[in-house]
């Protein structure tokens, strides 16, 4: 009858009756949002509509009233008009108790007053005051009063409608009203036990007991620009003498004028050129942080060492320290034309295409140093991709050796090296076993075993790169650490790299051309360059010999460094200026190659694990693409090509794929709160693309679901079908951001 009424001249939402309960109350916390649709002469409480027994959500979310079609609402009003409420005795009781043989009907507000239970989940069931679910209490449980952990007022520990007990904490009691307000504020992503922080078990019990948990973000997350200050990225050069002509605030990514922030505080910065840094991957500390660490005794400045004394280092202590963290970087925002190409779209019965040509991810790029070749050794991106595709196939051949028998590694991320070393040396460890990783210091991590393994290998490769086993700023060579040689650590490092490659970890990406050639062709066939010398004093000495422009200046230079030459076995009489070239070459060969003969041989033996070194020697160009070149940053095109889209017959394939590709473009251009690495992590549990690729290959399915789901065991991304792109983007942002945030917390 209400739907047929004529439109009033002064339509007032506050004074209009709800067509289902007949009340004018406007209390969103109790009855849901009161919505008025002038064009239909319709006002309804959202909860009244949601809990009505004879209506279903048959439309899309933007149709009718949140998917409830207007025609269906009219039918439900007519059906309820014949039913009398067992509480207020008035007509219009649209909600019925679902208990067998119970014929009670009531309005939603009446049910609240009579302490009925309404379950806001699955079939949206309702139970009357007689058949409502109750919480089980042990007879031995003490009775009395305790504090509600939300409002901090006293709450009686009795099984009443107004009191709820936590299912996961023995002594946690709440007022029902407090819990409901908390749920409405926190939303489905942040509503959890206030004592132990449990989410799944706590939410399941509260939903059973009639607490409504809205499927939206927390109220504090919905406030516009609430965290705007946190998004500010410090961009200012603070070194004493800034060399940039365009000023201290000028920042040009991927150039020498890119600003690098302090790795500890992040509140000071420097242009790469102003601090003589060759690449973004190098660490930098501001003066304030350096002084703090110096005073605390935890920071030791690396001393310059002469060749004769460089063999006295203690490498084990350095290896057991976790390298300092690096600030994450956003994916590059360069425009792409891949949207003009047709995506990989498949019907359900077709097999996915290969993604072997894909480069590795940006987040590994942050941590694994590139090789900055000084001898025209760089390759075009196209040839690099072809070679990486070849490596992927080779590594898959080697993975055939891996058996289903598992070896579990218990890892503490803060002691990654010592834990990894212990795991690789345990009696039952075999490179041919399937590796499972358990992070002992991350008990609440909701990752799969595969995700933990990806994270473990990423941390391990980062640690090796920064350990004392290697030296150099970008392209690294082996260092000489006598204690590490005695403890066989070079062998273990080579073994770990080989295992990482075959078991789906990242490639190191930091080998120098000289180190790679020594491994592949043998040290006797390699000619090192001055850039391979990491020791500053040694490099300066060699440069002085090289720059001598007369025989007298050359002899004078040699006289000044006779101890150095004697230690290198290069002390000999020089009778002509041209002799300096052979002398420089001999010094380089000694310092870069002969001096590290023992570490190199041990490292080579480790790389023979699973046949990796043999394949390197058979396919040198292919393996150099992953061992000596940093992975490409993730791009929208890379992610688009990585996934194969599967569509059922009732889904608009082209429209869904268009939304997906458009979203990737927005993420790449910085118009999103998530990154491309976040998307990859959400789906696969890995923030990088392994050199061996993903197994199984990543897929996308468009389904009639509310929010996207990342199934990491299957590397499958299930996406909701939406009518507009903005709906699609909002759902992606909300789910990915909050899922990853909860995992990190």
UniProtKB/TrEMBL annotation:
Residues 15-132 form the PHD-type domain. The keyword Zinc-finger applies. Pfam families: HECT (PF00632), PHD_G2E3 (PF26054), zf-HC5HC2H (PF13771). It comes from the Eukaryota. Keywords: Ligase, Metal-binding, Nucleus, Transferase, Ubl conjugation pathway, Zinc, Zinc-finger. It is found in: Nucleus. One of its GO terms (molecular function) is zinc ion binding. Pathway: Protein modification; protein ubiquitination. InterPro entries: EPHD (IPR034732), HECT_dom (IPR000569), Hect_E3_ubiquitin_ligase (IPR035983), PHD-type_Zinc_Finger (IPR051188), PHD_PHF7/G2E3-like (IPR059102), PHF7/G2E3_ePHD (IPR042013), Znf_FYVE_PHD (IPR011011), Znf_PHD (IPR001965). The keyword Secreted does not apply. GO terms for cellular component: nucleus. This is G2E3 ligase. It comes from Machaerirhynchus nigripectus.
